[in-house]
Amino acid sequence: MTMTSIGDASQYFVSRRNNTDIKSRLNTLTQELSTGLATDMSRHLGADRPRLAALDRSLMLLDRYAQAGQDAAQTLSMMQTTLGLMEDTRASMSSALVAVGEGSTGLQVDQGAQVARQGFETIVQSLNTRLGDRALFAGTATGSAAVASPAEMLTSLKAAVAGALSPSDVAAAVDAWFDDPAGGFATSGFLGQSGTPIVRPIGPGQSATIDVTANDPGIRDLLKAAAMAALAGQDGPPLALNDKVRLLTLARDRMFSVAQPLTSIQARLGAVEESIETAKANQAAQRTLFTTARNDLAQADPFDTAAHLQQVQVQLETHYTVTARLSRLTLAEYLR
User: Fold this and answer.
1) DSSP strand pairing (134-135 vs 198-203)
2) What local confidence, expressed as pLDDT, does residue 116 receive?
């Protein structure tokens, strides 16, 4: 009969390995009992593993939609803030030009034109607002500025109105510069891309479309009015004082009329903001549903876990008892 013996060193390592295995199982069961979740999902779920994977994918997609929606919401919020600043600038310019009328002095005309120039600069700078590394009003060309600098545009406009002999001539030249699809503002003023709107996915089958750019007709009309008023000063043609007054009056009236288009632009963006909020609410409800279903699948049976934990505790105590007894089985102890 063949006998297999285990030496003292081998016995030590076997005992140590068994001790480690039992402690590992004890820690696993303790964690499952405290968290309520199974640690070995493959063993716990068995044939239900595809369901858990599907729920995890759904939750991951919701996270991506939530991030995209958050980015779009931040962009829209900043655009609304910028449009609000532009509206405040429009209101300030129009209020300042109300004081200009028949009998106004050259100084008053120059002051009105200076207010308009400053307003034009403020509007242009607002249109070049960026969120991080993205230009807000440049359309899909987010890496570039939306519009050229105020000085560059006013220099081009000054050349365009150089031959104007009356306020109506100046207005016509300014309109032509801003509205020409093959020149003027389209080529040297607007630096973005307005052909394709920005589309951000915010949910399954849902997207947020941002189509407001610096080339929007309402924004161009505001730029026209501010530029016309600025050209009544030293940047414009050498008109008579009365003609400059009429030019400022014409620009002021346009500033009043452009208030509604600006409000309409803000309303368009507001509608997109509302769709994002609706999508966020729907996704929150879906997340709750999916998370609950996932937790139900991953949940460990507390009674079964407690029973196994008690068994392992007994096994560990037995292991310690046996190990202690084996440690005393020496020849000297036997002969004593």
Assistant:
1) unpaired
2) 96
99, HSE (Cβ side, Cα atoms, 13 Å) = 14
| Contact present, 301 and 228 (Cβ < 8 Å) | no
Alpha carbon 277 to its chain centroid, in Å, reads 13
Give the rounded percent of residues in the chain with a pLDDT score beyond 70: 72
Q: Decide if pLDDT at 6 tops 90.
A: no
pTM: 0.76
Q: Which two tokens stand for residue 149?
A: 């600098």
More confident residue, 162 or 18: 162
324 is a domain residue: no
- Token digits of residue 194: 């307005």
* Residue 188 vs residues 163, 177, 194, 276: alpha-carbon distances, Å: 20, 10, 14, 35
Task: List, in sequence order, the alpha helices (H) in the chain.
Answer: 8-35, 41-45, 49-98, 106-127, 150-160, 167-179, 217-230, 241-257, 259-298, 302-327, 331-335
Q: Are 52 and 41 in contact (CB under 8 A)?
A: yes
Which tokens in the block code for residue 315? 């096994």
Cα–Cα distance for residue pair 259/282, rounded to 1 Å? 35
Cβ atoms 140, 285 nearer than 8 A:
no
Mean pLDDT computed over 95-117: 93
The answer to whether residue 317 sits within a structural domain is: no
For residue 276, pLDDT over 80 is answered with yes
Which residue range forms the structural domain that includes residue 210? Answer: 55-288
C-alpha 307/C-alpha 304 separation (Å) is 5
In a domain, 230, yes or no: yes
298 inside domain: no
Structure tokens at 33: 């009992």
Task: Please report, for the domain that includes residue 144, its CATH number.
Answer: 1.20.1330.10
Domain count for the chain, please give it. 1
At residue 1, the pLDDT reads: 47
Q: From CA 164, how far away is CA 150, in angstroms rounded?
A: 21
At 272, give phi and psi (nearest 5°).
-70, -40
- Phi, psi dihedrals of residue 284, rounded to the nearest 5°: -65, -40
